[in-house]
Design a protein that fits this description.
The chain has eleven helices and 14 strands. The chain has an eight-stranded mixed β-sheet, with helices on both faces. Strands 2-3-1-4 form a four-stranded antiparallel β-sheet. The longest helix is centred in the last third of the chain and has 19 residues.
Amino acid sequence: MGIRYFVTVLAYCSVLSLVLGLNYSNYKIIRVPLTSQDALDSISSLESKGEVDLLSDGKAGYVDVLIPPRSPHSRLLSALGGVVLSRDVGKKVKEERGSLLKSSPLKQGDFSYDTYHDLETMYAHLEALAIKHADKATIFDLPGDTYEGRKIRAIRITKDIQTAGSEDKPLLWVDGGIHAREWVSPATVMYIADMFLGEVEGEKEEEVGEILDTFQVVIAPCINPDGYVHTQVERLWRKTRKPSGCRGGVANWFGGCFLEQCFGVDPNRNWGPVGVWNTTGVQNNPCSIVYPGTGPFDQANTAAVRSYLESQQSKLQLYVTYHSYSQLFLTPVGYSAEVVPEDNAHYLAVGEAVVRALAARHDTEYTAMRSGELYPASGDSPDWVYLELGVRDSYTVELRDTGEFGFELPPEQIL
């Protein structure tokens, strides 16, 4: 049973409470093609000053820019070839909130895929799965707490999990929710856990059984829980939540900030190795959405995942992280457009298989490509796993859609 087969099965399968704070009324989303470095530099400058927000990272050849009402920068973005995707983001957020209000409450431990769920509901379902499938599943928390005191919960699934030898099997890791606003990511990863335990897609029992005979699968649906919870009040929040400094680096006499207190680090720019971290695709303004932090793993959540994966290095054979949006399957490496791995033929074959499987299942068109091919970015988790831990099969899946709904993907498109 090979890695490529497992990745294909994952692809084939392929949050929370009410939005009570920032409502994004009359905010616009403008898609700008990245036809030149000047275009990227202009947009990055606006983002660094806090005048716009970036909703995509350019890997698909464009960047989606969130601008506030009456922004003076609409003309600049239009001059760069920008096209309006949404004229009122707040309307989408309000509709999403209404959908959540209408969803039926669940019994403790139950789960559904007709709505998005809060962190506690996800964790309760993982606990229920471990109790119901005690012969195949157990839950555990990664080391330590997040900045706001939360746990990162994971579930380990394999055949005969109570036997001593089960922990020696080759390990396949799946995570989601590293970027807080990407609600479909934790939902998808929860579905994968349900699939491996036969709660959904029972017809795959034989295929799943073959995987669990050979491998142990560890699934962590939400590895940025502080950020995820914060999206209840700021729907499009991306980063962690630890205070990160002052805009412009200017503090006042009382220990606060003259301009703005910044919060959080981009947890997918916060990984090593040291020689790669903070080299490209980042901003050193602590208010930027791509701020990489003061050093690799200076965030409790990324440090916790690192600690666990390092302890499993000799067994780790696959790393898959789920993001949204753009419908991409990304292979190593992400920090450079020029660096092409020696075994790129392997990645081309895996990518082709995954794209084919997704098309067969959902009639949805994905694109497979090297992560850094169009827009290099340093410090992401798959690069660290690939470069530091030596795991060849280290991938990112960017889920639906391509911008029509973006992060407010309707629940009916989770599956």
